[in-house]
Amino acid sequence: MNWSILSVSIPVHDPEKSKSFYQLLFPYNEKQESYYQSMFKKEESIFFGNKGLGLRLFKPKPDLELKNMIQSRRSYISILVDNIFNIKKNLEQRQIKFIFDDPSDSSPFYSLHVQEPSLNLIHFVQDSNGFNKEFSSWSMGLDWGIHHMNLESLDVRKSIDFFTNLIGMDEGKWLAPSNKGDFSIDPSELAILPLSNNNRGLHVIKPDDGFGYRNNFAHNPSIGGHPAFTVKDLSSVKAKLDKEHILYSDAKVYAMPGFHQIYLYDTNANMLEVNQAV
Ligand SMILES: [Fe+2]
Prior knowledge:
Strand order of the largest sheet: 2-3-1-4-7-6-5
Strand content: 25-35%
Shape: globular
Oligomer: single chain
CATH class of the largest domain: Alpha Beta
Structural class: alpha/beta
CATH superfamily of the largest domain: 2,3-Dihydroxybiphenyl 1,2-Dioxygenase, domain 1
Mean pLDDT: 96
Bound molecules: fe (ii) ion
Distance between the termini: 31 Å
């Protein structure tokens, strides 16, 4: 199956306030073209990126006001696929519930919302105009992109079974640097569904309560999931965070060869990773 990352949606209390925070990481694109944005009209949203690719900040509603809709309290990923009907058929066969939306006048896309076995919300999208691998939040033509989405899973192998056998993704092998930090790359504790040969894609990790402590970080990136953004100039991001007295863990190169990583919380305590190819 072909897939790519369309966007990451992050729940925030006050989208306008959060917009200023995220501008510390990368600029807000004033000249956005409209494309995928129409799919997310049910929620108040602010898009960073272009054509609806990239980052979306959204304001969740009270759950009891929702009708035929599911929302996530955590950051979640929207994935472009080329076989949404296969996914639908496989979920039906395993009697897994999902919400399926056909294209409409206002949004010409197929959309499927489902929870994987650890109840992370996953949003699949198919573009009726066809699948284009280059159309993704990694290659938006901007100075930043989404490198990976990390999902916390209470049963990594069950989650991977879902993504490989029901969705049709391929599992890869975690590539660790020679100076690897103190964490497990046993496939029952950390697994990867790669989009590249540099650990880009979907990461699935078992929560590890000592992860932050053992690696000397103020943050624990194995808890709660996180999106990871690749920027061109991490030192300028760090300088802005320093200036605003925002706490971050500078992990350096410790988990992925060739990537300098930092971790921080946004103003709503959503875990974020920002990295730079070095
Ligand atoms: Fe990460």
